[in-house]
Write a sequence for this structure.
């Protein structure tokens, strides 16, 4: 069950113009809050963005689909919510691995609720700090964009190490994944 969910989740970059309920957004943050944390320090804070004007402002500070820059969402297809993941440097100076785990928890709960998501690392952190009024003791680690999916990407097997996602003639996004035999070893590496 959870395996099926994890392998079928795809990054979604185009969204329907339908709002996301507060309950689902809170559930996503709650799942992140209860996720594993190194030394149980729990140094992360979260901002949910769902205000109409702020959604537009945040959108202008994001970058999409590095391998296919033309493919990013139009303003009509933009995310209908964001969750910003912040590192509280008064608790821990570096994020360790907590941020990625939190982002995945948010993405999986969103997916389970019928939403699509995109973890965003290519963000203008200086502008976002101003837009979201984030104080200096918090680093903006990642954003998770959320909304109801308006695309259905598929996975392919990566051939000869080519991992760049690509679009077919029908406009379907293909996401190459490295084969299991390339990434898995048993007991020792060689
Ligand atoms: C840490 C991290 C940062 C990412 N940053 C961006 C980003 O800035 N823009 C974007 O369009 N996608 C971003 N992605 C999404 C990846 O491109 C995507 O996960 C990858 O192509 C694999 O697709 P899949 O999630 O459908 O398996 C990011 C993913 C991760 C894990």
């Amino acid at each position: 069950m959870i395996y099926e969910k994890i392998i079928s989740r795809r990054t979604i970059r185009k969204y329907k113009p339908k709002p996301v309920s507060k309950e689902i957004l809170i559930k996503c943050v709650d799942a992140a809050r209860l996720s594993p944390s190194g030394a149980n320090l729990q140094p992360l804070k979260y901002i949910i963005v769902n205000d109409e004007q702020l959604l537009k402002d945040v959108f202008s500070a994001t970058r999409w689909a590095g391998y296919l820059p033309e493919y990013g969402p139009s303003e009509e297809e933009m995310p209908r919510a964001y969750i910003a993941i912040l590192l509280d440097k008064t608790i821990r100076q570096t994020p360790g691995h907590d941020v990625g785990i939190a982002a995945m928890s948010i993405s999986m709960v969103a997916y389970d609720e019928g939403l699509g998501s995109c973890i965003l690392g290519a963000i203008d952190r200086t502008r976002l700090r101003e837009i979201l009024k984030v104080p200096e003791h918090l680093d903006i680690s990642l954003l998770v964009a959320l909304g109801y999916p308006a695309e259905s990407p598929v996975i392919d097997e990566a051939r000869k190490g080519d991992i760049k996602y690509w679009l077919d003639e029908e406009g379907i996004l293909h996401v190459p994944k490295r084969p299991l035999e390339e990434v898995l070893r048993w007991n020792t590496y060689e």
The first strand starts at residue 44 and ends at 49. The chain has two domains: 2-151, 153-190. Helices lie at 2-8, 22-33, 52-59, 98-112, 125-131, 180-183. The pocket of flavin mononucleotide is lined by residues 10-11, 13, 63-65, 118-122, 153, 165, 175 (CB under 6 Å).
